[in-house]
Amino acid sequence: MSKTPLPYSAGDISALARSLRAQLANRTEPPSHVEWLNMLAKAVGCRNFQHFRVQPQPQAQAQAQTVEQITAQDPVGVTVGAPPPVDEARLLKVARCFDAVGALLRWPPKRSERDLCLWVLWARIDAGRAMNEGEVNDVLRGANRFGDHVLLRRELCDFGLLDRTRDGRVYRRVERRPPPEALAMIRRLKAAPAAGRASS
């Protein structure tokens, strides 16, 4: 590992604790040093430690902003300062996993593509709302066409985007700032669910 100091900032210590708890929930042994680095990176919205290392520091300080806050500050997709570039080819490929009304048609094979899909699902869960398992299932059933809401619920929890109590009765969205590609994907698909509801 590099000896260069890497500043670490979490916008919401409560969200950080929930994410770490979710990631540690089913472990029987303590994480290794590298696993801790990856878990801490995921808790602030990165895919893993390597992804965290290449993130610009101003973004790390803004991790706790919700999608709603970011959209309100940035309604046309232009942020203050120069945002990191996004992979438009990958965004287009992942967008093809969704239908015309923004429902997920298939579960991508690549982890990086699945992560973007999870962020889109996360954005469709109400911020700050305590939900039971049935309510979460209803949201995820409406958000996919391949019929596996259980897989999606488990993946959201494992990825640290959805938190649940130890007894599994209460679920809450974990408030984190999406990475640039995820934010671009959310914006790209944001109008689709509204259009689908309007026509139904």
UniProtKB/TrEMBL annotation:
It holds the Pfam family DUF2087. It comes from Azospirillum brasilense. This is DUF2087 domain-containing protein. Residues 104-173 form the DUF2087 domain.
